[in-house]
Write the structure tokens for this entry.
Amino acid sequence: MTDLSRRRMIKTGLAAATGIAGVGVGAGLAKKYGLIPPDSRGLWGAGETLNYASYRLLTKHAMAREFPRDEISARPLANEIAPPSEAFQKLQAGGFADWKLSVEGMVDRPGTFSLAQLKSYPSRSQVTQLACEEGWSYVAEWTGVPLSQVLEAAGIQPQARFVVYFSIEHDWWDSIDMGDALHPQTYLAYGMNGGDLPVGNGGPLRMRVPRQLGYKSVKFINRLVVTNDLKKFGKGLGSASPEGGYAWYAGI
Amino acid sequence: MSDKQEAALPASSAVSTLRHSALVRVAHWITALSFLALLFSGIEILISHPRFYWGENGNVLTPALFQLPIPSSRALVHTGYGYVLPDQNGWSRSLHFQSAWLIVLTGVVYLVAGFASGHFRQHMVPHGAEASWRPLWQSIATHLRFERPSAAEAWSYNLLQRLSYLVVIFVLFPLMVWTGLAMSPAFTSAFPASVDWLGGRQSARTLHFFAAVSLLLFFLVHVGMVWFAGFGSRMRAMITGRVNQPLEGA
């Protein structure tokens, strides 16, 4: 009996130690391979980390579904947005000729791009779905310049891990990891369905991240910052979304 | 050790006997808790867009398959109510996915253990004389007459119960997971067939809703039947694993 309980105790102890060591090693590996999202702490950290780690492991190189042109929605829904700021209205009055995108942070050649400069790069188009976290969706043809091309032009430094992007509108910013930033379907979009990108849909310049839900595709982009540390931005959670209670990673 | 002691006792003993294994009990309560969290957060998310569609796309500019007559947490949706509910989607979505992970991981352990131990074969799959239509009609009739379950049913599931558990475990839960993942733009980028086979993102969402309604109905009937069969003894059996009744003709 005592023999049995001692054996049992040793077994339980070994199992517990293995479990704790396993979790420790797992956490170390997860950190090393960048599987931990910036909002991994707090009540929902476990779920957010599992979501993000699964994407990194399973779908890192996958392409968002593209549709034939006849599946383009007749009317692309422009979601509710706050009234535009004075700064936006001023640029809009000038036909966005003075819209500037600044590229900063861990790049060799920081600087600004005008819309005309962005449009001078070979344009790319994708017919992809915009899916909102609320449940609705539409398909549109998005035209723009792949973010990777702009980052390449600016010269990303090797230690860069994230791209933070800002809307001209106050308190509207987000970030993606380098995998998403360099993904061929991640665009700085300036056109939709053959015309200019309408203001309601984020014109003149919108980030387009089709492998994540609509709220990652921030509207009215005028600033990019390449970084290796998201803690320096806002409350350090990677975007304005977690500050409003939403997950940083929105692939689901 | 305690299992051996029980096996040594005569079958007609009134001493408490193991009814549900520890794994079944732990899995049951984690699943119950996660299900309620998923239901609650799911309803909360649904309120932000209580319209449903079929096919790939749908939004307030397109006709709905149907719209639930409830208020919404978005001004964009015309509901006929003069107010907009507060937005609770942030934490609701986080709770939804965290509970989904918990229920799926628990479900995987339960399924593997259930197949390995013969749990499904022994306790759920109708066997022998049960596996035909006549016992099924009899079981339905027994339920419709609201007859109290026989003492034997404290020890084994009746036919209708077996079938509904099988449907929940092998049809509804997998369908929930599938239709849920089919709404993830990341998952569908890696596995596009998961959503294409369902007819599109909005079809997946609508099926997710109907599967959830089915699970809710199951949940209500399940709790009702537990109440009807004797809440105390059934709860005791699922918490402690033990039943304290004499065995008669089981």
The beta strands of chain A are 100-105, 111-114, 124-131, 137-146, 162-167, 173-177, 187-192, 195-196, 206-208, 221-227.
